[in-house]
Amino acid sequence: MQGGRMGRISATAFRSPPSVISVLFGLFAMWGIAATADGSNAPAAQSIEVLSGTYGSNCGLPRGNASRDLTRRCDGSETCSYELGDRLGSEPMKQCRPDFLAEWRCGNAELHTAALAPEAKPGDTLVLSCARVTGAGK
User: Fold this and answer.
1) How confident is the model at residue 109 (pLDDT cuts 50, 70, 90)?
2) How many CB atoms lie within 10 A of CB 66?
3) Angular region, 8: left φ>0, alpha ψ -120 to 50, beta rest
4) Average pLDDT of the residues in 11-31
5) Would you state the pLDDT for residue 96?
6) 86-111 b/e with 16+ CB inside 10 Å = b?
7) Sheet holding 100-106: strands in order across?
8) Full-prediction pTM beyond 0.90?
9) Do the Cβ atoms of 128 and 48 come closer than 8 Å?
10) Backbone CA torsion sign across 77, 81, 82, 86
11) Which one, of 132, 98, 94, lies nearest residue 115 by Cα?
12) End-to-end CA distance of the chain, in Å?
């Protein structure tokens, strides 16, 4: 108080934060995804189309030498855990620790690549997925 006068208190109007639902619908609209509360208009999951599976490319083995097995085990799935078999015990591999490389497509455009390092051993798993990631961090 100065000279008997009270200072003025200014009020600032605060908007209430938007609801979680309205934020989600706004994000879906921004991404071009039609959404309903029950998820009935959610986009269909895409499936894995294996392009190539290569075992031991770092050891000079030909590209695509594991494509048939990878395709048999993963093609058409939304997510696939590919367990590396016991090929590591084959004779030419004793001088070189082979890697494993998988290439696949989700839908018409999304291309993916994943690999197991040369330190991989039988039983190690490489996960291929076309699942849409949602939630925190996305």
Assistant:
1) confident
2) 23
3) beta
4) 43
5) 85
6) ebbeeeeeeeeebbbbbbbbbeeeee
7) 48-55, 100-106, 110-116
8) no
9) yes
10) negative
11) 98
12) 52
Q: What is the CA angle 136-117-62, rounded to 5?
A: 120
CA distances to 25, 66, 127 from 115, rounded to whole Å, are: 36, 13, 9
**Contact status, residue 105 vs residue 46, Cβ threshold 8 Å:** no
Q: Are 91 and 81 in contact (CB under 8 A)?
A: no
pLDDT in tens, 58-97: 999 999 999 999 999 999 999 999 998 865 445 556 688 8
The answer to whether 39 touches 77, Cβ cutoff 8 Å, is no
List residues bridging with 27 in a β-sheet.
none
Strand partners, 52: 103
Count of C-beta atoms within a 10 Å radius of residue 49: 17
